[in-house]
Amino acid sequence: MNLATTPSTTTASEALFERARAVTPGGVNSPVRAFTAVGGTPRFITSASGAWLTDADGNDYVDLICSWGPMLLGHAHPDVQAAVAGAVARGTSYGTPTEPEVELAEEIVARTPVELVRFVSSGTEATMSAIRLARGATGRDIVVKFAGCYHGHVDPLLAQAGSGVATLAVPGTSGVPVSSTADTLVLPYNDREAVLAAFESDGPRIACLITEAVPGNMGVVPPAPGFNAFLAETCRAHGALFISDEVMTGFRATAQGGWGLDGAIEGWTPDLMTFGKVMGGGFPAAAFGGRADLMAHLAPEGSVYQAGTLSGNPVATTAGLATLRLATPEVYEHLDATAHTIRTAVSETLEAASVPHTVQTAGTMFSVFFREESVRDFAEASQQDTAAYAAFFHSMLDHGVYLPPSAYEAWFVSAAHDDRAISTIIDALPAAALAAAT
Ligand code: PLP
Question: Which residues carry this modification: N6-(pyridoxal phosphate)lysine (predicted)?
Answer without folding.
Answer: 277
